[in-house]
Design goal:
The protein has one domain: Rossmann fold (3-Layer(aba) Sandwich), CATH 3.40.50. The protein is globular and about 45 Å long. Helices cover 33% and strands 23% of the residues. The longest helix has 21 residues. It is an alpha+beta fold. The two termini are 24 Å apart.
Length: 173
């Protein structure tokens, strides 16, 4: 992740995202329990997230430099240890109107709030495999060559599911 260590620490991105996601999923009717050390082997439905990539460039009060903030979260929904659905959620923002006056944390937190809403809508709508959410919906997400989402490496995926992912990757090229 290219978001600086200082910004990650100051903004507490993972904790903020977890809180926003818990609130959004709760509003969508889900009962959410956060647990350290959770694995896909837990009984019931488990949503595991990977904060895969991110970038924050530019500085507040600098109207002469472009300012870009971007996050990518990959998620896998397991049902009793089996992969049920996966997604990649990408969101970009320059801060909107007056963005040059907003802090990096404010912009990244806004992105995370919108991403939590994206994920809750995905979860509530009979989530599909390999969904692209947010700004990434319908576009190609750039990952290192031949790198599947982290849950694709799970032995819980059937060969058919892995073949489906590879087919989608070839179609996007």
């Amino acid at each position: 992740m290219k978001v600086s260590d200082a910004a990650r620490a100051e903004c507490d991105l993972q904790e903020f995202q977890s809180s926003q996601l818990q609130a959004s999923l709760g509003a969508a009717g889900f009962h959410v329990t956060r647990k350290d050390g959770l694995t896909e082997a837990e009984p019931g439905q488990v949503l595991l997230l990977e904060f895969s990539q991110g970038e924050s460039t530019g500085h507040a009060l600098d109207i002469f430099s472009a300012r870009t903030n971007y996050l990518l979260i990959i998620g896998c929904l397991y049902d009793n240890g089996k992969v049920k659905a996966t997604f990649m959620n990408t969101r970009y923002s320059t801060g909107g109107f007056g963005g040059e006056f907003k802090t990096t944390c404010a912009i990244l937190h806004k992105i995370e709030t919108v991403m939590a809403s994206d994920i809750a809508k995905w979860a509530a709508a009979n989530p599909p495999m390999f969904a692209l959410l947010g700004n990434g919906a319908g576009t190609k997400v750039e990952l290192p060559p031949n790198t599947p989402p982290f849950c694709m490496m799970s032995e819980k995926l059937t060969p058919e599911m892995k073949a489906q992912w590879r087919q989608q990757q070839r179609q996007q090229r």
